[in-house]
Amino acid sequence: MLINLLARAEGVIRSIRLVCPPDVPLAGRVVPLAPRDAPLGEALLRGALAIGAVPVSPAVDTAPADTVLVVGTEHGLRQGRPVRLVAGYGWWGGVGGHPLAVPETYGASPLPFGPYLAAALAAAEVFLTVRLPGYDAPSAPYGWDCWEQSMRSEPVPGAPARLADVDLSGTALAGVGAVGSAWVHALWASPGLTGKVVLADADSKGITLTNLNRCAPFGRCHLGLPKAEGAAQVAADSEIVWDPHRARFEHLGITPRLLVSAVDTNRARAELQNRYAPRMLSASTLDLRAEALRVGPPGIGACLRCYNPPEAVTGDDELRARTRAGGMAAVRALAAEAGVAEAEVRRWLERGDCGEVGTRLLHSLRRQAGPQPARFAVGFTSVMAGTLLAAETVKACMQQLMRAAAPQHNNVTFQFLKPTAGINATGPLARDPQCPACAPTHPAMRSWQSRAAHGSAFGGGARSDRRDTRQPTQAADGFAF
Description:
Layout: H1 2-7, E1 16-18, H2 40-51, E2 56-58, E3 69-71, E4 84-89, E5 92-96, H3 113-131, E6 142-145, E7 150-151, E8 162-164, E9 166-167, E10 171-174, H4 178-188, E11 193-200, H5 227-234, E12 240-245, E13 258-261, H6 266-273, E14 279-286, E15 289-294, H7 316-325, H8 327-338, H9 342-351, H10 356-367, H11 379-397, E16 411-415, E17 425-427, H12 445-454, E18 463-465
Helix pairs in contact: 3-11, 4-11, 8-9, 8-10
């Protein structure tokens, strides 16, 4: 994952030199853009080549280099120069100038969550060092554990080292962009997950070149593919059965037991909330911040619509007026975009008739309604959000709380600018008093409460190999959402 993120950082990183022992076999599903039977070093190089951005070449040592990142132990590469050590285990990942502690008694863990967090932390340090003159990474080792969703310099004792027969059936993902595709990537790499999972994304452009800077599973070979189909194709060799759809999730007419939101507009979040699925999770990014939410409980915790007022929509009459003002050039462009005859476009502009033609033209006009505000997006933030979301998905299917020590906590936030700051933490996010979707008077609330009460055990069961004999902590006040 670290090579994956660095290889997408075009304009930030000039080149990457990879020092990797020869003939090391791949351990499970590690590099999605390379053959599964290739040795590790070759797979990393071929995966980077498939991204086609920052060049990655093999090397026998790290000199010369502006930054040296050592994954795992030092392997004698310090050579009198400072390095950043990057380590991940199970649900925990960390970075530091000194070796990070993973107790030997823990044994091996094939889980990707912690390693992906470590990769995101290390990639963020490189990005901030280049983009913010004077930036200093924390001197002491630091890390994050997503079993307890807390800042830690080593893994949480007692977290499952492996998963076995965790059934994700009844789960659906809405939005397979940067965060959603990272969610798929993390689940694909996790042994022990099964079940059928729906993927829905309606982006008419599919996977574009601009997606490659932050969508971890995709390479240039996926350009033009629908995002859901592309993600399902990359992750096809896992035990999970992916069911991709090029459509808005709410148009599928289904209500899953677990709805996972990775959409990027408030209007889309409001539409998903209107499904009132028994259980809902959400993740998003904003600049250098990643956030994940366990929605509810109904009427108590925040819903998908809370604090997210839908964006304003330009009225139909104004859209027609704008097109008329553009003259024949605008008519021809709209006709070509919507696949409608120019005469029909002119007739609709004058009369505003309803029907199939009018619907198609309005849909095209809304796509063209004007440039969206520029959004700052980097791959490591998306991978952090997608990994937090994937971890919460698995934990929810195992009937685990977001944080056992704080049953009421349903929200986790992590920002990279000051990674050891106290604001990187979990907390309770109560419902927005102004939110109409989860207001006590809303007609759907009783139905949502009933669904939530009867849908607490989704999936076909879950087991995990644990390092101790503690039983999963149950919610004392219903916050096991």
